[in-house]
Amino acid sequence: MDEIERLELRIEELREAIARSRRLRLVGLASAVIGPALIAGFVLGLVAYTPTRVIVAFALSIGGMVLMGSSRSSTEELQRALRKAEAERIAAIDALDLVPVEGRPA
Predict the structure, then answer these.
(1) Contact at 8 Å (CB) between 55 and 77?
(2) Total-model pTM
(3) Are the beta carbons of 30 and 67 closer than 8 angstroms?
(4) In this predicted model, what pLDDT tens digit does every residue of 20-69 receive, in sequence order?
(5) Domain residue spans in the chain?
(6) Rounded-to-integer distance, Cα 64 and Cα 102, Å
(7) Are 31 and 67 in contact (CB under 8 A)?
C-alpha cells in the first residue's frame, strides 16, 4: 500500500501544479491582450502617451506571450507526468491481486 499512497500523493501534487500552470497561462493571456490594447489606445489618443506607459505596454505584450507559451508547455509536460503516475497507480493496484468478498458487489 505504501507505493499506492505515494502515487496518490504524486497525482494530487501534479493536479495542483496543472491548475497553477493554467492560471499562469490565463495571466499571460490577459497581459498579451492588455499590452496591445494600451498601444492601440496610444495610437487612437485614448490613453495619454508617456514613455513609461509605452515600455509597460510592450513589456505586457511580450511578457504575456512568453508566459502563455511557457505555461502551455509546462502544462503539457505535467499532464504527461500525471498520465504516467495514474498508469503506475493502476498497475500497482492490479498487482495486489485483490479478491472480491462474497455477497458484495465487485
Answers:
(1) no
(2) 0.75
(3) no
(4) 999 999 999 999 999 999 999 999 989 898 999 999 999 999 999 999 99
(5) 2-93
(6) 59
(7) yes
**Which H/E stretch holds residue 102?**
none
User: Residues near 67 by Cβ (< 8 Å), separated by ≥ 6?
Assistant: 24, 25, 27, 28, 31, 32
Q: How far is CA 82 from each of CA 43, 55, 64, 93, rounded to the nearest angstrom?
A: 46, 39, 26, 16
11 touches 82 (CB < 8 A): yes
- Backbone φ and ψ for 3, nearest 5 degrees, come out as -65, -45
Tell me the pLDDT band of 97, cut-offs 50, 70 and 90.
confident
Counting every residue written for the chain, the total comes to 106
How far is the C-alpha of 36 from the C-alpha of 64, rounded, in Å?
10
Cell of 104: 458484495
What cell numbers appear for 30 in the block?
490577459
Three-class secondary structure of residue 1 per DSSP: coil
